[in-house]
Design goal:
The complex is a heterodimer of chains A (about 550) and B (about 220). By secondary structure, chain A is mainly alpha-helical. Chain A is about 70% helix and about 0% strand. Chain B has about 220 residues and is mainly α. Chain B is built from 7 helices and no strands. Residues about 1-45 of chain B have low confidence and may be disordered. Classes of the chains: A mainly alpha (about 550), B mainly alpha (about 220).
Chain lengths: ~550, ~220
């Protein structure tokens, strides 16, 4: 075979230096890993911040780092920092940019992203926005706010470029035979999410540019007066940062789907692989993924064009619930249908995938409460909603990311994560998140209820304080349990059990057809050719219980 | 030599327009045969044009979303405001608009020259288009200076904020287009990477889009008075 010399951006020889191999590399695998390292750093930083908040909430007397001086302001900064780290650098970056960059080209049989240099630029911008967000937390509040918005603008631009890169790669760089119906569901999810990102992040970019110009050039795009005029007087006094409120609305609608879509894909993929069964109603599941994307965008559009710049809560919430319930239910049915009657392999990766389903259902049920606009009005902005979105978005997505990490770790590093430590970590985390976030739902309903009754305020506050202490203690233990993961991760990275075979999970997709970790040019001299769908498990009449996508029909070993 | 087009390049682009893009994966694998080396080579070469025209389509949609978000903010604030101070748009904007529209025509004329295998005619018209583009941006700067001379700054009122942000954001995007025009003019197109015909084609998409976008923004500013 001739060597692969006709793709312009493909590196001729593998670069040698450490920086050249990591930070300055245009290789999709190196960039994907960079994003994952960034997310790993951010998630532990964010966890530390959340602990500070919890401890300060229950024991305000304790002197904590970052909370000296004007405590109210510092606390707000802490919340913002925790939220932006988790939402942007972890939930948005890890499943899409991290795993996506590394595995999307491998799974579709491309050797690179469509625009490798643009890809590297996006990574640099993301890293710079992390630095900016951290600096914003450390400097004086007014400068910090401006810096924060600038960092978010940068992050938007990076995500936009990423989205464009992912879409083009999926459309144009698929291997021979990799037709759309044969795409793995992970690729579908990344692809739909990429399109959603290009649409939504450009809108976010416009918003943040306006906001930035309001702060730097004193323009009047988000006049506080219009918004405040309709609010009661005490509201105005206690709730000044209206600019934040607006930007938050821009983000909140879209970000949930941006974070969740790739996780849906990852979980579907894991469940099918470890159930040794094809994805049940695969076509419908793909349509449901599209539906999440379309509805997610429509909810945004509704917010933007019908209700204009004024958040019109009931309408948005009702639409959200009614339109997104359908694809979410289809995905759930597909997962349960795949699991039904299957020979399930309960390894850590699968445990996290099933944990995801549990969290998704729990969070979805509290979502129904929030979809009722009368209940939403009562529950919004207190602990009920904090519990709800942490469960359904934050923790569920983290479970999907962890499941994917356990699944792909052998491919990424050529070693396995320790299964016993992994399972211990899973069970502690699974119990921990319910112990932390379930009581929050209850607290939210309880503290609201006293507004209406009035007589039992003392009795209720006597219950509330110990529950808050309970949540905080549970949160501390939960974070300590993450130490198990960190130890497991670092230990396995250097000392973990080596994986000699290419396909330890007996999975079907193309990334398992190359050695672990994948070589610099991914597929070697010959381009991969795809002969079948992504989930051919337990095919009747075949010796093995899986048929890889790259296996030609004549190579398939028939059962005796 | 910039401006020279080899026949295979033109054939490639014709094939691309005809929808025979080789990047599309062939259906099915039940036929074991691999298509042969020749087909493989052709398929790989045609990766490039396809991915460039795909990226420009997606990028244009996202740029459209960016400006639609600004436009919807404009419309919402315009309707909701009781104290809207209008900005008197400088007349030079009309001249600028005509210049930009003309540049679209010269660009198309240039591309026709290219398809008729007339590299020098292409180059002249292409440079004329670039010049018109630069003239437009200069005209926009003059419009800004005229407004500043009248005491209308970006922070004066909402209408002026929108005027500056619309024209500014459009000019930034147009500068990207001018960069791309210059790239096509001065890059050496050899066999590697993007071909001249592809580069000029996607530049033309971008340029016409910027053209139409400007007409839309101008209409919005006039109607919003």
């Amino acid at each position: 075979m001739t060597t692969n010399d006709n793709s312009a951006n493909h590196p001729e020889a593998p670069p040698v230096g450490f920086l050249a191999r990591t930070l300055f590399s245009t290789d999709h695998k190196a960039i994907g890993l960079n994003y994952l390292w960034l997310a790993l750093f951010s998630v532990f930083l964010g966890l530390a911040m959340s602990l500070l908040m919890r401890i300060h909430l229950v024991w305000p007397g304790i002197r904590l780092p970052f909370l000296s001086g004007s405590t109210l302001e510092r606390y707000a900064a802490l919340t913002t920092f925790h939220g932006s780290l988790m939402v942007f650098l972890v939930l948005t970056a890890a499943p899409q940019a991290g795993f996506g960059n590394h595995f999307l080209p491998l799974q579709i049989g491309a050797r690179e992203m469509a625009f490798p240099k643009l890809n590297r630029l996006s990574f640099w911008a993301t890293a710079a926005s992390l630095v900016g967000l951290t600096m914003a937390f450390l400097v004086a509040p007014q400068t910090g706010i401006t810096l924060w918005i600038a960092s978010v603008t940068l992050f938007c631009a990076a995500s936009l470029c990423n989205g464009i890169n992912f879409s083009v790669t999926t459309i144009d760089l698929r291997a021979r035979g990799m037709t759309l119906p044969r795409l793995p569901l992970t690729v579908w999810a990344w692809f739909i999410n990429a399109i959603l990102s290009t649409l939504i992040f450009s809108t976010l970019l416009a918003a943040s540019v306006c906001l930035l110009s309001d702060r730097l050039l004193s323009t009047h795009f988000f006049p506080p007066l219009n918004f405040l005029a309709g609010q009661p007087a005490n509201f105005v006094a206690t709730f000044l940062p209206v600019l934040w409120q607006r930007l938050f609305w821009f983000f909140a609608q879209a970000e949930v789907y941006i974070a969740m879509l790739p996780c849906f894909g990852l979980v579907t993929h894991l469940i099918s692989t470890f159930s040794r069964k094809p994805v049940w109603i695969e076509r419908l599941a793909v349509l449901a993924l599209c539906g999440v994307g379309v509805f997610g965008f429509c909810v945004w559009g509704q917010h933007m064009f019908v209700s204009g710049m004024n958040p019109f809560l009931p309408l948005v919430f009702s639409l959200l619930a009614s339109s997104l319930g359908l694809p979410a239910a289809i995905l759930l049915i597909s997962w349960l249908g795949t699991l039904w009657n299957a020979r399930i392999q309960l390894n850590t990766s699968m445990l996290f995938a099933i944990g995801f389903i549990s969290l998704f259902m729990a969070g979805g049920i509290s979502g129904i409460f929030l979809a009722r606009h009368d209940l939403a009005a009562a529950a919004a902005s207190d602990e009920f909603i904090t519990g709800h979105f942490h469960l359904v978005m934050g923790v569920a997505a983290t479970f999907a990311i962890l499941g994917a990490l356990f699944f792909w770790f052998p491919k990424l590093f050529g070693r396995r994560l320790n299964e016993s430590l992994g399972k211990l970590h899973f069970w502690l985390t699974f119990a921990g998140v319910y112990l932390v976030f379930m009581p929050m739902h209850w607290l939210g309903l309880l503290t609201r209820a006293n507004l209406y009754s009035g007589s039992r305020i003392a009795a209720i506050s006597a219950i509330v304080a110990p529950v808050r202490v309970f949540i905080t203690v549970a949160a501390i233990l939960l974070v300590i349990a993450q130490g198990i993961f960190l130890v497991n991760f670092l230990w396995s990275l250097f000392r973990g059990e080596k994986v000699e075979e290419r396909n330890p999970w007996r999975a079907t997709t193309l990334e398992w057809s190359v050695s672990s970790p994948p070589p610099a040019d991914d597929f070697g001299a010959t381009d991969p050719v795809v002969y079948r769908g992504a989930y051919e498990f337990s095919v009747p009449g075949v010796a093995e219980d899986f048929v890889p996508q790259h296996l030609a029909p004549e190579q398939v070993v028939k059962a005796r | 030599m910039p401006g020279t087009t080899s026949v295979p390049e033109i054939e490639l682009i014709i094939e691309d327009i005809g929808g025979g893009g080789g990047g599309k994966p062939p259906a099915g694998g039940d036929d074991g045969d691999d298509g042969g080396d020749d087909e493989k080579r052709r398929r790989k070469e045609s990766h490039s044009p396809r991915r460039y025209s795909t990226v420009i389509a997606i990028a244009l949609v996202s740029i459209l979303m960016f400006f639609m978000a600004l436009a919807s903010a404009f419309i919402v604030l315009r309707r909701g405001s009781d104290v809207w101070v209008t900005v008197h748009l400088p007349p030079i904007l009309l001249a600028n608009t005509l210049i930009l529209l003309a540049s679209s025509f010269t660009l198309e004329a240039a591309r026709r020259r290219l398809s008729l295998a007339d590299p020098s005619g292409f180059r002249k018209l292409w440079l004329l288009t670039t010049g018109l583009g630069i003239l437009f941006v200069a005209g926009q700067l003059i419009a800004w200076r005229q407004l500043v001379a009248q005491g209308v700054y970006i922070a004066s009122n909402q209408a002026s904020s929108f005027f500056y942000i619309f024209t500014g954001a459009h000019a930034v995007h147009l500068l990207g287009g001018i960069g791309s025009l210059l790239y096509v003019s001065f890059r050496k197109f050899d066999q590697k990477g993007i071909s001249l015909s592809t580069a000029s084609e996607i530049t033309s998409y971008y340029w016409h889009f910027m053209d139409g976008l400007w007409v839309f923004l101008l209409a919005l500013l006039y109607l919003g008075k």
